Amino acid sequence: EKEARVAMLAIQLGMLEEAEQLYKQCKRYDLLNKFYQASDQWQKAIEVAEVNDRIHLRTTYYNYAKHLEATGEHTLALNLYEKSDTHRFEVPRMLSEDLHALECYVNKMKDKTLWKWWAQYLESQADMEAALKYYELAQDYFSLVRVYCFQGNIQKAAEIANETGNWAASYHLACQYESQDDIKQAVHFYVRAKAFNNAIRLCKDNNLDDQLMNLALLSSPEDMVEAARYYEKNMEQMDRAVMLYHKAGYLSKALELAFATQQFAALQLIAEDLDEKSDPALLARCSDFFIEHAQYEKAVELLLAAKKYHEALQLCLTQNLTITEEMAEKMSISKDSAELSEESRRELLEQIADCCMRQGNYYMATKKYTQAGNKLKAMRALLKSGDTEKIVFFAGVSKQREIYIMAANYLQSLDWRKDPEIMKNIISFYTKGRALDLLAGFYDACAQVCGFSVGPEFWVCTCK
User: Which of 36, 247, 250, 318 allows an S-S link to 45, with CB 3.0 to 4.6 Å?
Assistant: First the structure.
């Protein structure tokens, strides 16, 4: 603002009152605050900060406290340091020459940060008992454990670490136990500190195999792999190595060991995590394993994941496995897929449909024949289902002469005499299929059971 620039010029010329008025006119209260501070008008500076320049309020308190400290007015300075929220550092510094006053201030404030600072000071003066008192007030469990360990009271340190569950305290205590070759306690407190890699290291070095397994399962994938490599060296514990490789996500390695050591139960667990993103060679190998052990449904799943559709379908046929809707969809290849040519894709779809037909799943067979473009076979499958509503609908949308005739022939096998809608569809389908001889035969059958009259468009049944 122009007034602010003019006010700065007025200050340089010693025109302080004019500068003050200009800052007020342009409402630059931040600059007015600085002006009051620079001219030793601290009360005015605080008033401006409290009312119009609150963003600099704590800074104003702090600067005034520094000014009062410099002039020896420690009591007022202390109050302003508290208002600026810098008392946890500034007051101990200011009162460092008057330890009695500092101790009284720390006790009066009952602040954890100040208690901890005072405890550290007392520890530096080798007053351990007093330091422990203030560390406890500050709830600084790490420092409590550290001091107790220094005093040799490791039992008390262990009680604190167990009760509080503090990670830093537990880690420090674990290091102490390790230095004393108390491996069991060291492992325990490393686990409490979530330092699983250190606990695993101790278990490996001291042959604590059972505990190592439990720790590895709780730890990171990297630690799991390290533990698995340790177990891999011992043939009697290969099952643990397989489990850890599996848990760590190293499926190839887990499968390799499982096959090498013939761990069939582990293979079943690992196979559950295999999908289309897995190595096709692994999928094929696992499927062969399940075929050998007569677990054909699992083998089919793996073959489908490996995109070996023909092999999966052939297994369903030879073992008479029911093709579920999910399996059928996985076997079906979309038109835009580059996995199979269009001819091979249609052939595969028809084979799936043929299998569904044998199993009596006529709806699925209809769907797959339709996807393969063979609507005649789709209609035959649908006719076997006996679903009149779907047959009529399919004939209507197919718009093929043969399908119209097939639908009409099917409808004639129903009790069309009692349902005018069926009679209407028979006549409509024969007409659309241009099967005039069949239509004439239908009219003749109608004439034998009920009378007809000739309307302007078609024959009309007059029976009651």
Answer: 36
